Amino acid sequence: MSVFSIEEKINVFREIFGRTPQYFSYAPGRVNLIGEHTDYNEGFVLPIAIEMGISYVVAPREDNKVRLYSADFGEFNEFSLEDIRKSETKWSNYVRGVAKFLSERVLLRGMDALIYGNLPIGAGLSSSAAMEVGAALSFQAVSPFQMDRKSLALLCQRAENEFVGMRCGIMDQFASLLSEEGMALFIDCRTLEIRNIPLPQGYSVAICDSKVRRELVSSEYNKRRAECERAREILGIRALRDATHQLLEEKKKHLGETLYRRAKHVVEENQRVLSAIDALRANDLQEFGDLMKASHISLRDLYEVSSRELDILVGIALSIPEVLGARLTGAGFGGCTVNLLREEARENFEREVKKRYREATGLEAEIWFTRPAKGGFVELFSS
Ligand code: ADP
Ligand code: MG
Predict the structure, then answer these.
(1) Does any ligand 1 atom lie closer than 6 A to the CB of residue 157?
(2) C-alpha angle with apex 70: 79 to 6, nearest 5 degrees?
(3) Separation of CA 16 and ligand 2 centre (Å)
(4) 90-103 vs 149-158: helix axis angle to the nearest 10?
(5) Which of 30, 58, 97, 151 has its CA 20 to 30 A from that of 170?
(6) Does the residue 215 lie in any domain?
């Protein structure tokens, strides 16, 4: 669904619900620049919010009903705040989950909401977190409560973990709520400390969708998590966040080859995130790009979550002179790559990557360009 003008938002809402909306809430998706498979090891990540997201056009209700219409699925869904259960209508569960955990803590009002997005669904750009964050902001707009953004994000994560049943870290919801325009978001996944760090002007982030979706992603993801857990136990530490090179070398025999490689990736990837922040602060995007390249190689060789298609996409990107860095982003095996390039090279990048990826794989890559966007917000329609 494309982006609506203000008049269109109001008109479409009126057609669907027969009344006038009051609020517009918006939550962006995200892409992680560096720090992959570090979040569940209590490590560091550096995502940006992207210029695509989920929109909610909302009117409060006097009763406890929540009536939803998904423009993208062409479907209604309705529930009562007094009895929130999981639905067969999957997309509604992101709203229901948020409503359930919010209602345990604060007084919620009902609402009518029209939901639509321009984020690709299931591509790893976190349309799910954007659904949750959009719902949380909408409930906050129509209800008499205020919650700080970190608490809202944690609640949204809980909705995804416990209600929808998807085990995800805190990065997605934090990025969608706490990002600032033009800035990357550093997150310490242990302390939940954040820092917004400017990305210099003149550079663009390109996201390339390999169009490959593999069944094994979630089983391999769970396998990596289990491997990290075992490595942590053997090393005798709380999380791989606490591992050092020295410790890994000392315990190399006990770990065995596979666990050693997994742990090594995590230790070095955390270090790369910290170095990436230093590079940003020093305006050294060449160095930042080199860290992205090293991250990809580590994900490919040590963590073993790349794929032929992702390696091809990264290889093509890095052969373009204006590209500073490229790597797979997300769980791996398929999904997207993230690339840092000079702004003026966007057209050439799109042409080259599409053409050469098609030649190498027969697949049509999809490409989006973005600058770091601001986190979710609510606006009042002026009447
Ligand atoms: P992603 O990588 O995009 O987060 P997920 O599988 O985690 O993929 O979440 C995708 C799910 O989120 C969809 O199946 C759908 O239920 C919901 N969703 C995403 N975008 C929309 C949208 N525009 N409208 C309604 N539901 C959406
Ligand atoms: Mg998701």
Answers:
(1) no
(2) 115
(3) 27
(4) 130
(5) 58
(6) no
The residues assigned a catalytic role are 172
**Distance (Å, whole) CA 118 – CA 1:** 5
Q: How many domains does the chain fold into?
A: 1
pLDDT classification of 383: cutoffs 50, 70, 90: low
pLDDT in tens, 232-273: 999 999 999 999 999 999 999 999 999 999 999 999 999 999
Distance in Å, CA 364 to ligand 2 centroid: 22
Cα 270 to chain centroid, rounded: 18
On whether residue 42 sits in a domain, the answer given is: yes
* Distance (Å) from CA 123 to ligand 1 centroid: 9
In a domain, 341, yes or no: no
Tell me: the pLDDT tens digits for 286-341?
Answer: 999 999 999 999 999 999 999 999 999 999 999 999 999 999 999 999 999 999 99
Q: What's the burial of 309, exposed, middle or buried (CB within 10 Å: 0-12/13-18/19+)?
A: buried
Probe residue for ligand 1, chosen from 91, 96, 119 as the CB with the greatest number of ligand atoms within 8 Å: 91
Regarding the beta carbon of 113 and ligand 1, being less than 6 Å apart is answered: no
Residue 277: name the closest of 185, 193, 369 by CA. Answer: 185
- Phi and psi based region of residue 50 (left: phi greater than 0; alpha: psi -120 to 50; beta: remaining): beta
Q: Which atom of ligand 1 is nearest to the CA of 166?
A: 7
CB of 68 within 8 A of CB of 95? yes
On whether the pTM is more than 0.85, the answer is yes
CB atoms closer than 10 angstroms to residue 76: 13
Domain membership of residue 70 as a residue range? 6-195+373-380
Tell me 190's DSSP state.
T
**Dist. CA 165–CA 233, nearest whole Å:** 26
Span 188-214, average pLDDT: 97
CATH of the domain at 157: 3.30.230.10
Query: Is position 359 within any domain?
Result: no
